[in-house]
Amino acid sequence: MGRAPCCEKSGLKKGPWTPEEDEKLVAYIKEHGQGNWRTLPKNAGLSRCGKSCRLRWTNYLRPDIKRGRFSFEEEEAIIQLHSILGNKWSAIAARLPGRTDNEIKNYWNTHIRKRLLRMGIDPVTHAPRLDLLDLSSLLLKPSAAATSYYPTQADLDTLRALEPLAGYPDLLRLAASTLLPAATTGAAEQAQLLLPWLLQAQMAQQSAAAMAPAPQSAATGGEQFACQMPGLVHASPTAQQQMAQDHVAATCVQHASYDDASHQLDYVSPALMQMASTTTDASNLQQQWSSTVTSSNNYNNNNVNSRVSTPSSSPAAAGRMNSSSTTKTTTYGLNASGDVIVDDAGLLDMHLSELLDVSDYM
DNA sequence: AACGGAACCAACCGCTGTTCA
DNA sequence: GTGAACAGCGGTTGGTTCCGT
């Protein structure tokens, strides 16, 4: 049952706070502390409800609040923490000293969210957007009959079947361009090869979601992949990505005897799904996949500890990475204990379990 | 200068989880 | 065990400011 609004009583003021009201509230809290918000307004001589006083204090009047524009570092931290924590603004704010959840929420909705959308990144999942994927590119027209090619009913059915998977456009393009047998030129034939393992990957994804429902919609691909690799459940996205890449390489080696690409796909697809779901940059994914496949023959256990840097979704950060600037780039991830890992400049993992422990929110 | 739409952000609303009588 | 009171959170609203025409 929802509770009655605390400000229903008549006579309580609403709307913007006046400097006099601010003064009263600050003076009272300085003298008596925060205490009971319900009784505070009366004691402080304010015609406001306690809830309004609490919001005004926590979002505006608190002395430790940092005003002004967000720095590049703060912005990057918000994006990375949001990719881990989702819309848990208070949890994100707890890791950004001087910033309130309300401020971060507003900044996200007015700046970051829009920019991610412009970049073709879904601000909820941090994955490439479904609506930007050209599914028809999957069905490569036979070159000899390109001008007279019409999709068959089977092609259209295939497109419809693939649509739910289009949240991973990089994966789909990659699969179409890299994994299909070179000798296969027919669109329907390619789709027939592609479909089974994509569906398999989707089913794995769905069963993972059913087995371990994510706390909120921004669940990472790592969580989805965890059903196939249970050890990944508490691994950081970066670690999951690396483990998935290693898994791909291992499975490539393991099943290298299959000269039929479709058989390899059966084994490689789940790991590839993980690579795609933890990667938001197409070229990076292509690079990872290419290097994984080409190096798979040399695969050894030493690779397990190598690192794959998480691509930045921030133009500002991208600029920093491409320049010779000495500005630090900080990467957030989750370690095996569920702690946020802060990776400065990709050189060092700092486990700030006390400051950055997000295990409570996972 | 005037207007309208976009952007911004403080504040509110409604809900959930916790505490306590 | 139950329900009211309370604190806190995330989503939304609406007033204000900015900016382009």
UniProtKB/TrEMBL annotation:
Which SUPFAM superfamilies does UniProt cross-reference here? Homeodomain-like
Gene Ontology MF terms in the entry: DNA binding
Q: Would you name any one GO CC term?
A: nucleus
Give every HTH myb-type domain span: 9-65, 66-116
Alphabetical list of Pfam families matching this protein: Myb_DNA-binding (PF00249)
> Region Disordered: which residues?
292-333
Annotated Polar residues bias: 321-333
Low complexity bias located where?
Answer: 292-314
Q: Which residues form the Myb-like domain?
A: 9-61, 62-112
Alphabetically sorted, this entry's keywords are: DNA-binding, Nucleus, Repeat, Transcription, Transcription regulation
Q: What compartments host this protein?
A: Nucleus
Q: Which PANTHER family match?
A: F14D16.11-RELATED
Q: What is this protein called?
A: Uncharacterized protein
Q: Taxonomy-wise, where does this protein's organism fall, top ranks first? A: Eukaryota, Viridiplantae, Streptophyta, Embryophyta, Tracheophyta
